[in-house]
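From: lab user (bench 3)
To: helpdesk
Subject: output format question, protein + adenosine-5'-triphosphate

Hello, I'm new to running complex predictions and I'm not sure whether the block I got back is the full result or only part of it. Here's what I submitted:
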Amino acid sequence: MSLLETRSDALRLHEVRKDFGARHALEALSLAIAPGEVYALLGPNGAGKTTALNLILGFLTPESGHIDVAGTRVDRDPLAARAKIAYLPETVMLHPSLSAVENLSYFALLGGRRLDEVQARALLTEAGLQDEAHARRAAGFSKGMRQKVGLAIALAKNAQLLLLDEPTSGLDASAANDLSQGVRAAARRGIAVLMATHDLYRVKDVAHRLGILRAGRLLVERHTDELSATEIEALYLEQLAA
Ligand SMILES: Nc1ncnc2c1ncn2[C@@H]1O[C@H](COP(=O)(O)OP(=O)(O)OP(=O)(O)O)[C@@H](O)[C@H]1O
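Helpdesk reply: Thanks, we reran it on our side. This is the complete output you should expect:
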């Protein structure tokens, strides 16, 4: 039995293949993420990153292969698998007339969890939203603030796996840094994180491991502590050119 088979992964993809007509979006993709680990899935446009997230979420069905979320197979029990996943989309939709605390409480309740104000504020703080914004209406929130509320909603779900699609796109450096801190906070709680990203420069700070996907194939996986930020960029460019 290999090391991969002995650890209890929060996410495992086993040779997952997905076609759209004649196009092979993913070719036998296998990867595993441990609890508390942040994994950055890098790749150019059309590499298959969003397809992989949609398969994990059960929005798409693979041609072959299968996916386990904390021991639950997505194809056998999609609702149970989905219950273990929190998803932070690129654009977080909030009720504009409700405050951050109210939005969080509302979405947590939809997920079956009742939060009091102290708990809601603690989660917003953990996600990086400054105190003075907690009681403000979301209508005036920047994209970065919306992402932080989205992250707090994800934390409230007590999920075992957090999926993020391009979480820092369109954020300024400071907001992207805040979001990275929030992701690391989620990982410290033991949540496994899979983030699809183009943000090469932040990968070293936020992720423990990276994988480079091109045309549906995972070309390389590395631990980020083995590489400098410059080496990550060089590796990415080298793999894309190969
Ligand atoms: N619903 C669909 N129907 C047909 N083809 C699709 C569909 N969704 C994705 N594809 C194709 O599958 C491939 C992978 O797309 P995907 O969106 O997963 O890539 P990506 O890595 O997320 O790209 P981006 O960085 O642009 O978001 C692309 O060739 C894309 O055109």
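A quick orientation on your result: Confidence is low (pLDDT under 50) at residues 1-6. Let us know if anything else is unclear.
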